[in-house]
Each structure stands twice: as structure tokens, then as C-alpha cells.
Design a protein that fits this description.
This protein has 5 helices and no strands. By secondary structure, the chain is mostly helical. It has a domain at 23-105. The longest helix has 52 residues, at 42-93. The chain is rod-shaped and about 125 Å long.
Length: 122
């Protein structure tokens, strides 16, 4: 009885030794794809891989668009500030006192109104 148990244990040890590099050998040898589980679920696995690629590519596209939005927002803010600066300069230069100063400096014959404006009603 004890002699029969020893060869069975040796055969189990030999099987264990063969299995140590089994996962890498199965992947590299292509035996993984001939497995029954892989054959039954090949379409599901292909769909999962396909949707994973789509998810990753959409994520990169989203980040690219987000950076573009941030860049355009900064550009818009600088242009808005420039517009406000130009508006304030224009309003300060278009005041009556400023216009009179400019006309005096240029020796123009134009003069400011002596009487205030009034409206004519019908």
C-alpha cells in the first residue's frame, strides 16, 4: 500500500513542476486562445477590448478639448481686459474738457459752446 502511494505523489510533483512556467508558456504558446473558456467568450472579450479603446481615446480627446477651452478662456479674458482699457481711454479722451485741450494745442478755430444745449419741442 505504501509503495503505491509513492509513485502517485511523484507524478503529482512532476505535474507541479510543469505548471510553474505554465501561465507564461500558455500565453506565449497561444494555448490560452485554444482554451474552451476563451473560445466561448471570444466575442465578449473582443467587445470589452474594443470599448476599452474607445473609452481611452475619448478620455484623451476630452482632455485635449479641455486644455483648448482653458487656453481660449485665457485669451478671451485678456482681450476683454484690453477692451475695457481702450474703452476707458476713449471715454476720458472724448470728454469736453479733453477735446478743448486738444483743440487748443492744435490751434484750431473750433470752440466749445458758450451756452448749454437745449431741446426744441414741437
Amino acid at each position: 500500500m505504501s509503495t503505491e502511494a509513492i509513485p502517485a505523489e511523484k507524478s503529482k510533483k512532476k505535474k507541479k513542476k510543469k505548471r510553474r512556467g505554465g501561465i507564461i508558456n500558455t500565453i506565449m504558446g497561444g494555448a490560452l486562445f485554444s482554451n474552451e473558456f476563451m473560445r466561448r467568450n471570444a466575442t465578449l472579450i473582443a467587445l470589452i477590448v474594443f470599448y476599452s479603446f474607445i473609452y481611452v481615446s475619448n478620455r484623451y480627446e476630452y482632455e485635449r478639448e479641455l486644455m483648448k477651452i482653458e487656453r481660449l478662456t485665457k485669451k478671451r479674458d485678456t482681450l476683454k481686459n484690453n477692451l475695457l482699457t481702450l474703452k476707458s481711454e476713449f471715454t476720458s479722451k472724448s470728454r469736453q474738457t479733453e477735446l478743448e485741450k486738444i483743440l487748443k494745442n492744435r490751434d484750431s478755430e473750433l470752440e466749445g459752446a458758450q451756452r448749454p444745449m437745449y431741446s426744441i419741442k414741437k
